[in-house]
């Protein structure tokens, strides 16, 4: 519930200054040009993967903060452009979901009438019909290596585009260079769509159960549902995306809140949107605090049901003491106007090109 100080002129000004300094979007021209270059790279990868005859591309799907309009530039001089692209593999309709956990992770099993595919033979768990997420991911990476992306060369507006491939933690990452300077990063994820029906996707992506973990499993993905929800979200000139960008920057500026993921913050925003009808620009500071309040309620209950699959809990794999400490800190902030204003202002003063606020992407 909004408090009077949430509406104060001083706090409104402070929130907007924080957003403009620490949660600004990347330059629109840079994003548009990066998208053009991405469209040059995608056919190259598809052709090279097909030539190795294991991974057959059904289609590409785009997801993530850049496409949703909630990406944050790292600094005035570093746009930190990044694109999340899903490589939807042929064969999803030969699989079925088993043993879905409260955390949204599941097992994928071959149907009894599944077509014989070399991909499945190479990625099955020993003596079972289950497809291994980690084997699939590692095999996908080895075939990307076989694409020889370091040999990719394309002229774009008078400069040469080149690529470098990395196995970057839980992600398979391609850094794209324009001349000698890094232009953007591309995160590639192998993914199965079990439905095969547009608008009714049942998508599973190989993902670490926790940040930095080597425990890779199949996670039910609602990325396309999120993307559709963000599409046209602020067509009324509202402040919804501004609130999410501000939440991202604020959470990552506070070490005690930094375990929260973009999924947690998106879910808090979606639930606040359902509860609040008006998102006018002049209500920005109120809606920001309302969204923080929604997050606080979930922490208090120790549960955050997935927005698109309420039967799963986004807090399932997190410790009780972590949530309690974060809830206490969040409650202190939401009830203390001077402290909240001070924290936002101090983050603005620290934000410099060489020492920027880090962000959830």
Question: Could you explain the architecture of this structure?
Answer:
The chain is of the alpha+beta class and 361 residues long. The protein has eleven helices and eleven strands. The chain has helices at 9-22, 28-51, 65-68, 118-123, 133-146, 223-230, 240-253, 262-275, 284-301, 320-334, 337-350; strands at residues 57-63, 82-89, 95-98, 105-110, 130-131, 154-156, 159-168, 171-178, 181-193, 203-208, 216-221. A hairpin with a 2-residue loop joins strand 8 and strand 9. The chain is globular, with a radius of gyration of 22 Å. It starts with 8 loop residues before the first helix and ends in an 11-residue tail after the last helix.
Average of per-residue pLDDT values = 89
The gyration radius over C-alpha positions equals 22 Å
Give the N-terminus to C-terminus distance in angstroms: 28 Å
Q: SS-based structural class?
A: alpha+beta
The best one-word shape is globular
Task: Give, in order, the helices and strands.
Answer: HHEHEEEHEHEEEEEEHHHHHH
Number of strands: 11
Helix content: 40-55%
Low-confidence blocks of residues = 352-361
The largest pleated sheet is described as: 11 strands, mixed
Count of helical regions: 11
Share of residues in strands: 15-25%
């Amino acid at each position: 519930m909004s408090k009077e100080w949430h509406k104060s002129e001083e706090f409104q000004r402070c929130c907007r200054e924080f957003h403009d300094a620490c949660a600004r979007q990347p330059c629109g021209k840079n994003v548009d040009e990066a998208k053009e270059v991405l469209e040059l790279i995608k056919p190259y990868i598809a052709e090279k993967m097909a030539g190795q005859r294991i991974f057959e591309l059904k289609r590409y799907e785009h997801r993530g903060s850049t496409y949703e309009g909630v990406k944050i530039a790292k600094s005035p001089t570093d746009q930190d452009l990044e694109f999340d692209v899903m490589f939807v593999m042929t064969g999803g309709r030969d699989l079925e979901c088993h043993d879905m956990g409260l955390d949204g992770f599941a097992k994928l099993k071959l149907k009894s009438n599944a077509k014989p595919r070399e991909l499945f033979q190479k990625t099955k768990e020993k003596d079972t019909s289950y497809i291994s997420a980690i084997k699939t991911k590692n095999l996908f990476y080895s075939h990307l290596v076989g694409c020889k992306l370091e040999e990719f060369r394309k002229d774009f507006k008078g400069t040469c585009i080149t690529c470098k491939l990395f196995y970057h933690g839980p992600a398979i990452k391609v850094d794209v260079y324009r001349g000698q300077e890094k232009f953007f990063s591309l995160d590639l994820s192998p993914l199965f769509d079990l439905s095969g029906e547009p608008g009714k996707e049942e998508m599973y992506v190989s993902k670490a159960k926790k940040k930095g973990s080597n425990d890779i499993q199949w996670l039910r993905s609602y990325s396309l549902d999120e993307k559709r929800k963000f599409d046209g979200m602020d067509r009324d000139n509202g402040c919804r995306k501004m609130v999410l960008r501000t939440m991202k920057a604020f959470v990552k500026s506070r070490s005690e809140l930094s375990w929260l993921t973009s999924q947690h913050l998106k879910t808090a925003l979606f639930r606040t949107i359902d509860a609040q009808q008006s998102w006018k620009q002049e209500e920005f500071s109120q809606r920001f605090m309302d969204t923080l309040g929604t997050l606080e309620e979930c922490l208090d209950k120790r549960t955050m049901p997935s927005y698109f699959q309420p039967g799963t809990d986004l807090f399932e794999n997190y410790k009780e003491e972590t949530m309690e400490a974060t809830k206490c800190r969040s409650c202190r902030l939401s009830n203390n106007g001077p402290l909240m204003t001070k924290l936002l202002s101090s983050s603005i003063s620290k934000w410099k090109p060489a020492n920027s606020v880090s962000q959830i992407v």
